Amino acid sequence: MKRLMPISLVSFLQTNPNCLKADLFAISLPTGTTIYVTEGQFDITVPSGTNGWTGSTTTFSSSQYGRWSRGAITSEAGFGLQSNTMSLSCVPQQGTSYPGMNVGILNAAFNGLFEPAQVTVYTAYMPSNGYGNVSNGIETKFYGTLEKITEINRLKVTFECADPLYALNLKVPTRVFQSNCPWSYGDSNCNPVGGIQTQSFTAASGSSVWTLIPSSAFSQAFGYFSQGVVKCTAGTNSGLSQTVKLHDASGNLEMSFPWLLTPNVGDTFVVTAGCDKTLPTCISKFANQVHFGGDPFIPPPTQAV
Length: 305
What we know:
The longest helix has 9 residues. The radius of gyration is 24 Å and the shape is globular. β8 and β9 form a beta hairpin. By secondary structure, the protein is mainly beta.
């Protein structure tokens, strides 16, 4: 992977071989929050306009979200399309919480709240007598995705990160002939006529990690939100989403998997209509047959000649 180093930093390193350095990590979480951490002993602030940095003035914390460090970054020259990889580890202090939630870092990692986070690694080079002085610029070392957890225990979690070439690890062909629609409801291929059908609601007493009870009954008939997606917009699970297994006859939403934390009365959510990806549903429920991507009249394989 090509490394990006501003000319001012190259000149600095040529005349300061014994400089200090520390890795900086910008981790964009699936909840929409970005945390800025450093392996350095103390916090490091990167001012706006610093060579190699395009963001606003940002402080990279040395301890707020635990101690973060990386492993070696693999890099090879060849004719293949193998992605470069890097390990990323976190050793949180006792009581260190996942941003915006009342759950520990390790518990959050175990429940998949770091996947698939985007990670950018920078390296700050500083004068030997000026820790935190990044006026000469910073180097971009790596950009990629948290692919999977390789180790987790009561003290530490280690992730494996892969650069964007990892996205080329796709099954080919990406589409096959099938009766059901391959699109996800509401994506750019589905492009539902009239827009995506959603409904905001507030959780009522009796809601649990498996079932959400709306404070006001939905106007839609039961089953309308089955196989849809519900996202918590404010509350204990803010930013998290779950698949709706069943929009039952009582008007409640039953989850396919439990919420990480028990919803409280007053937590707010937005739920998206569910789609079973069949042509009759596309016609009767969404009137979106013009964008239907399946092949409903293809014969079963056992009848093909």
